[in-house]
Amino acid sequence: MSNFADEKGYSLVEVIVAMALLLIVFIVSTQIVMNTIAQSEKIDKGFTSTEVADGVLTIYQSKSLDELKSQLNSDVNVDIADLLQVENPSSVEDYTASVKVTYPDSMDLKNHLLKVVVTVESNINRTELEGYVEL
């Protein structure tokens, strides 16, 4: 007969403690990964809204002065997919854009420039981009 006291190995308590520690490490690392994924999605949406705003601003800067002056001091809602000629309109359906054309704040520039402010919003963030058009 063998004596259990002479057996080498881990006790049940040691195994349970080791499993509990591994479980804690697993839970913490899972939480870190989930937070990283959420932040990555938020950054990606922010980058896309900046790209949309830049595209809308570029198109407005290439419009004629008569078109821009007809929209002076009014907020104009923009159909992003149509204006940017997006192949897949569902890729921008979460975004709304508006454009406001005004004179610059500086009186010195009022006779030389028009200010174009593009605002793009999604459920996560709001991006505002400002540009100028020479008169």
UniProtKB/TrEMBL annotation:
UniProt signal peptide: none
Alphabetical UniProt keywords: Competence, Membrane, Transmembrane, Transmembrane helix
TM region(s), chain numbering: 12-34
Domain of life assignment: Bacteria
Gene Ontology biological process terms in this record: establishment of competence for transformation
InterPro entries: N_methyl_site
An example Gene Ontology CC term for this record: cell surface
Pfam family, one: N_methyl
Coiled-coil stretches noted in the UniProt entry, renumbered to this chain: none
Main location: other
Cellular localization per UniProt: Cell surface
Protein known as: Prepilin-type cleavage/methylation domain-containing protein
